[in-house]
Amino acid sequence: MSIQINAAFDGGNIRLVAIDGDRVDLEIAQDHQSEFYQWFYFRVAGATGRKITYRIVNAGKSAYPFGWPGYKARVSTDRLSWRMIETRYADGVLEFDWAGGSQLVWFAYFAPYTMEQHDALVARIAAQPGVAHRQLGESLDGRAIDCLDIGSGPKPVWLYARQHPGETMAEWWMEGALEMLTDRANPVTTALLGKATFHVVPNMNPDGSFRGHLRTNAAGVNLNREWHAPSPERSPEVLCVRNAMDETGVAFAMDVHGDEAIPANFLAGFEGIPSWTEALGDKFYAYARRLADHTPDFQLDKGYEKSAPGKANLTMSTNQLAERFGAVGMTLEMPFKDHDPNPDAEYGWSPERSKKLAHACLEILADVIDTI
Q1: Which are the contacts of 19, defined by CB distance < 8 A and separation ≥ 6?
Q2: Residue range 87-112, pLDDT digits in tens
Q3: Spatial distance between the Cα atoms of 359 and 372, rounded to a whole number of angstroms
Q4: Helix (H, G, I), strand (E, B), or coil: what is residue 123?
Q5: What angle do CA 197, 203, 204 make, to 5 degrees?
Q6: Domain 4-108, what fold?
Q7: Where are the domain boundaries for CATH 3.40.630.10 in the chain?
Q8: What is the distance between the alpha carbons of residues 77 and 104, in angstroms, rounded to a whole number?
Q9: Is pLDDT of 363 > 90?
């Protein structure tokens, strides 16, 4: 039986270039109407009992080629458990081998979170007591922008993820957050929901998620550069979410992402916004310090450079929300590699650890909610 490569499924992305014996050359397809690409997810059949070398030959021209050194691809034979495998990067080519005995095997940039998984999550959480579901709007392809409202407290808290659809760890984090927020036996949850009302958007970019994009929506637009002036033509996903935020206000907001290069979890704040005050900034820094003290899966040493005074990019959601609402806003970044201060040699950074980090983030929010 010949080797067969397939990515024609929810979230899939790869293009076959050539098969030469036990070597398979592949390319990642660009996001539609965009030059961005880095996310891959594909299935292999017909390779049982053979050691095959897979080569992604256009990796060097991807959106973030500096993220490939030290990266390890994920592999699964059941689409449930995703382990890291040894991966090489040289001369612009990403390469890995597989000699497993299963009839089917899947490879991905990170453990996928498909739209089917998203729909199942929304259905499960919406059925829980005390949860109100809203469809805030539709994407360019007509998919629902789901929001789950939980709690009765006076502080409006917004959690939203997957503006960049290839950053699937972000929706794994959301699954963990939603499971904790619907666990009424948890005293931390009970206390938190009495002080805050949560508005949770698990997936801001369903079109890009289904299409197998790295960073953009169906029109090739980076949603996290649309928050100053979202439009129905380019970014209805942002427009409907920001409109809903205008109705509720925002006291605390977390935008959940993944980072290609930095092997650690970290937070980015809103330094440089025109209305920056030390008092507001101190609330963000205090949250980050407490989170680092609370879990070994978070750290303060690695991260992005801070914007200079007055130079914040207000097209980005965290900066826009801090400026627009005086919110304690932040962007959580999780790695495609591993959290090097606390590594896992088999799974690296993983869905399970993403979900646990969500619990830690909510536990710290419960500690500081009275100060926000």
Answers
A1: 2, 3, 25
A2: 999 999 999 999 988 999 999 999 99
A3: 19
A4: helix
A5: 95
A6: Immunoglobulin-like (2.60.40)
A7: 115-371
A8: 6
A9: yes
pLDDT tens readout for residues 159-206 = 999 999 999 999 999 999 999 999 999 999 999 999 999 999 999 999
- Cβ atoms of residues 72 and 348 within 8 Å: yes
Question: Which tokens go with 65?
Answer: 């080629």
Handedness of CA 146, 151, 156, 158 (dihedral sign): negative
Bridge partners of 144, per DSSP, are: 138
Q: Are 257 and 302 in contact (CB under 8 A)?
A: no
- Rounded to an integer, what distance in angstroms lies between the CA atom of residue 206 and that of residue 352? 22
Classify domain 115-371 at the CATH topology level: Aminopeptidase (3.40.630)
The residues assigned a catalytic role are 333
User: In this predicted model, what pLDDT tens digit does every residue of 217-245 receive, in sequence order?
Assistant: 999 999 999 999 999 999 999 999 999 99
Give CA–CA dist 56/193, Å, rounded. Answer: 47
CA 73 to centroid of chain Cα atoms? 17
Which residue type is seen at 143? R
Q: Classify residue 370 by its DSSP letter.
A: G
Q: In the chain, list all ranges with CATH 2.60.40.3120.
A: 4-108
User: Quick one: pLDDT at residue 100?
Assistant: 83
Cα–Cα distance for residue pair 156/193, rounded to 1 Å: 10
Q: Give the model confidence (pLDDT) of 42-91 as tens digits.
A: 999 999 999 999 999 999 999 999 999 999 999 999 999 999 999 999 99
Among residues 155, 188, 161, 158, the alpha carbon closest in space to that of 173 is found at: 161
DSSP result, 88-100: EEETTEEEEEE--
